[in-house]
Write a structure and sequence with these properties.
four-stranded antiparallel sheet, five-stranded mixed sheet, 191 residues, mainly beta, rod-shaped
Length: 191
């Protein structure tokens, strides 16, 4: 019987038997130690993109590919791990059984690429898979005026055209306000 820490693989075994009269017989055997405790966790999508602070959901599949029932502890590693919640943290699976795990990511508001790793660990095996989330500049915009200097006299009326260019990928509503002398005003406060 192999010890519990024996590594899976093929091993050669030779047995020699001898008699008191010097007759020798030898038998060679191959012993295969199987990987009886094995698991596989796979993220079904390894890359997604989203707008800042949105809820994003990934789906993972956990499979017990070993030959015995195992209980797995699930966790997430990476810079955004504090913004990630799993649908289940502990899963028990029979051999050949699988379970869907949902990965919920919320409140990642910084634009850029964010990596994370999901890990399933039992007392005898472990597996991990990695994915990333790209946060895009969905709400970027530019405030444009037709001029930045006005020369006026008393009772003059001057109009400065203000426009907003939406550089993001989502439509947006913009609230305008003005600071300055009391005679300056906006004709619209919402665009």
């Amino acid at each position: 019987t192999p010890k519990s820490n024996a590594k899976p693989g093929n091993y050669q075994l030779s047995i020699t038997a001898s008699t008191q009269k010097g007759l020798l017989k030898k038998g060679d055997f191959e012993i295969v130690i199987k990987e009886c405790f094995k698991t596989k966790i796979t993220l079904l999508e390894t890359s997604k993109s989203s707008c800042p602070c949105d809820l994003v959901t990934y789906e993972a599949s956990l499979v017990n590919t070993g030959e015995f029932q195992e209980t797995y502890n699930l966790q997430v590693n990476g810079p955004i791990k504090d913004k990630i919640t799993l649908s289940k943290n502990i899963v028990t699976l029979q051999p050949g059984a699988s379970e869907k795990i949902f990965v919920y990511i919320q409140n990642v508001c910084e634009v850029g690429l964010h990596d994370f790793t999901i890990v399933a660990t039992s007392s005898k095996s472990s597996s991990s898979d990695q994915a990333n989330l790209e946060i895009q500049q969905c709400f970027d915009y530019a405030l444009l005026t037709d001029r930045d200097f006005v020369r006026m006299c008393e009772k003059d009326v001057e109009t400065i055209k203000i426009s907003i260019e939406n550089k993001g990928i989502k439509s947006n509503t913009y609230e305008l306000s003005i600071e300055g002398p009391a005679f300056a005003n906006l004709d619209k406060e919402t665009i």
